[in-house]
Amino acid sequence: MVFFIGPSVIHAGYRATTSAATIQSQRAEYRRLDEGESGLSGADKAASQNARSKLFLWFHARGLDIDEGDEEHPLWQSWTELFGYWRS
User: Fold this and answer.
1) How far apart are the C-alpha atoms of 12 and 6, rounded to whole Å?
2) The whole model's pTM is what?
């Protein structure tokens, strides 16, 4: 049972402790990084992609969408993203 509801409980906890202003600021930073990557190369591009990847996990740890399509995700993906967030 914990496997199924655990991510939702963790997401809700993170969302409850994250202000709307912080979420908005992180969305702006994600967009800035995403839009700026086309002009980068080498180490600069890799650093930007790494920062954007961390922000992607930050959003998903809170159960918030960022840069998603309409595809279905496997049940275990939420756990994988949470572990990735905790390791970053």
Assistant:
1) 10
2) 0.83
Token output for 50: 């790494």
Q: How far apart (Å, rounded) are the C-alpha atoms in residues 86 and 83?
A: 5
Strands (DSSP E) found in 1-88: none
CA distance 4 to 12: 14
- The structure tokens listed for 37 are 């990557």
Euclidean distance between CA atoms 28 and 80, whole angstroms: 25
pLDDT in tens, 50-73: 999 999 999 999 999 897 766 677
Residue matched to tokens 């655990």: 6
Q: Please tell me the predicted confidence (pLDDT) of residue 36.
A: 94
- Here the tokens at position 75 are 């049940």
